[in-house]
Structure formats: C-alpha cells, structure tokens
Design brief:
binds fe (iii) ion, D-Maltodextrin-Binding Protein, domain 2, about 325 residues, 2 domains
C-alpha cells in the first residue's frame, strides 16, 4: 500500500512540475515560437497570462498564492517597479547572471535584461541625406521645422527618451529642448511608431522618432514593407555619448511554484538559440554576446548604447512626464 502510494506520488510529481507560468507585458503572438522551442527542448509547458497593465498589482494582491513563476516586461521603469514592489527573488544561477552584461541586469539580480532596442530616427531616404541626423539635441534645431513626426509625448518610449535627456543635461535644458522639438513637429503627435514610418512614406514628414524593431517588423509584413522601405534608420547619439536604448527583461517571483522550471526557461532565454529566436521574433538586439542577430537587422548601423545606466535614467521618468505636460507637447 505504502509502496503503491509512493509510486503514485513519484508519477504524479513530475507531471505536476512540468509547467512554468509567466505573467507577461510583452506582445503575445510574436513570442509563441520562442516558448514552443523551449517546450520542444524540455517538455515543460509554458502558460502565459498577457496584459499590458496591472500585472504588478495582481502579483501583490495574490501574494504567496500567485501561480506566476516569472514576470516578463519591456521598459526599465517597469523592471524598476517590479523591484520596488518586492515581488521578485534574487537569481543565483551563474549561467544567468554571467550571460548578461552588468549594465543590463539588476544590481541584486532581481531581474535580467533579455533584449535591447534603440529609440532612433526614421529618415526619409529621398529627402534626408545620410549624416544629416546627428544627435538627439539637434532635433530641436529649427532646420527640422515642420519636418518631424512622433507618437504622443506621454508614451513610455518618449518619456524614457526625455528622462535620458534630463539625465544628460538637466531639467531646464530639457524643457527648452522639448519646446524646440514641439515647434518642429509636422503634425500633432498621434499613432504608434509604425504610423510615423507610414507618414514618412506618405511625405507628411521627413524624420520621425521610432524604435528600431518597428521597422524590422514592418519589413517582414507584406502590407507594410513598402512603407518601411521608404525609411532609413539613423542612430542619433546624445552629445558625447551613445544612442538611447531600452530593454526587455525577466524576473522570478518570490513565490514561484516551479522555480526549477523557471530557471530552466531563463537559461534557455539567455542561450545562443533562445537569444537568436527572441531577437528575431521581435527584431530586437540580443544582449548575450555572440548571439545571432535577425537577418532583417543585419544592414542596420552599429548600435552604441548611451553610457548613462538605464536605472539612473528611469529615476527621471516622473520629471519627464511633468515637463511634457508643462510644454503641452501633444497639444
Ligand atoms: Fe512597442
């Protein structure tokens, strides 16, 4: 009887353990090939709850009963929020920590970065010469008057860029810069980054702020490829530094019911194979040295990230939001 019970337990335990649960802020369908590859390799089923808001509050509310093992997100501010919410545990696996450069993981290893994107300039190939776009500071120059497009100033990506400007030059400079950028707009901020590439293709503006991966994703979409082909990616820098980047990242919850499977999935995500798949499904830059870059990105300029640490930039997010409101950027 005891033996039968032990046997039953042995049989039942592996079956129950072969799951890993993710709360994810990342776009859903695109990520599926990544998790399918992991399941094919390990037999571990990946269950995902997607949402673009509220997952941190959900983790706090669920506490120790949360089914989530892992949280995935984009944007350094959200990774900082996850840390502040005290819902993550420190990673100790050297395979995870050593794979990711220190500037792209939490100091206490509560999260690690997985991929990187630049916030750069989409330039009209036929109206903007290579080399004309130089720095972010230069976007306030009147030579761009009536030629610049962007999505809302209140969007996370523009708040992060503005926070980086504050980190480099302080608030007073940044406010004047925002006023200059606003004065250069060809139209009121609208749409997402894809809309800005379309506006360039339609001749509504000559340059636009946008994230690198939108162009990569458009190039792979038959309906959007022609618009993307009107655009050249130019990588501006902050004067004396590099290009503004942001990351996607992952952390393990304090209450993870399947911690071993969670670590296995993270190990896969930082492996050369996982990095190459993750990078190519989203057209993002792998963070692990030597991982293969997506073919669609191979002709792009070299990306040299800004030297100010992302977490320092994130501390200026609230100031960036206030400045956007003060200059009525979207109005
Ligand atoms: Fe996006």
């Amino acid at each position: 009887m005891l033996r039968a019970l032990l046997l039953a337990t042995c049989l039942a335990t592996p079956a129950l353990a072969e799951d890993v649960n993710i709360y994810s802020y990342n776009q859903s369908e695109r990520m599926q090939p990544l998790f399918d590859a992991f399941t094919a390799q390990t037999g571990i089923k990946v269950n995902i709850v997607y949402s673009d808001t509220g997952l941190i509050n959900r983790l706090i509310a669920e506490g120790a009963r949360s089914p989530a093992d892992l949280v995935m997100t984009v944007d350094i501010s959200r990774l900082a929020e996850l840390k502040a919410a005290n819902v993550l545990q420190s990673l100790t696996d050297p395979a995870l920590i050593d794979a990711i450069p220190a500037q792209f993981r939490d100091a206490d290893n509560l999260w690690i970065g997985l991929t990187m994107r630049g916030r750069v300039i989409y330039a009209a190939k036929d109206r903007v010469a290579p080399g004309e776009v130089t720095t972010y500071e230069d976007l306030a120059d009147p030579k761009w008057q009536g030629r610049l497009c962007t999505r809302s100033g209140l969007a996370d990506y523009n708040l992060a860029l503005t926070a980086a400007m504050i980190a480099h030059h302080g608030e007073a400079y940044t406010k004047t810069w925002l006023e200059g950028v606003k004065a250069n707009l060809a139209r009121k901020p609208e749409g997402n980054d894809t809309s800005q590439a379309k506006a360039i293709a339609a001749g509504q503006c000559d340059i636009a702020l946008g994230n690198t991966y939108y162009i990569g994703q458009m190039m792979e979409d038959p309906e959007l490829k022609a618009d993307a082909e009107a655009v050249r990616l130019d990588f501006p820098v902050f004067e004396g530094s590099g290009t503004h980047v942001n990351i996607s990242g992952i952390g393990m919850t304090k209450s993870a019911p399947h911690p071993e499977n969670a670590v296995k999935l993270m190990e896969f995500l930082v492996s050369p194979e996982g990095q190459a798949i993750y990078g190519s499904v989203n057209a993002e830059y792998p963070l692990v040295a030597g991982a293969e870059i997506s073919p669609v990105m191979q002709g792009w300029p070299a990306l040299t990230p800004d030297t100010i640490p992302l977490l320092d930039i994130a501390t200026y997010r609230a100031d960036a939001l206030r400045l956007m409101e003060e200059v009525n950027f979207d109005g």
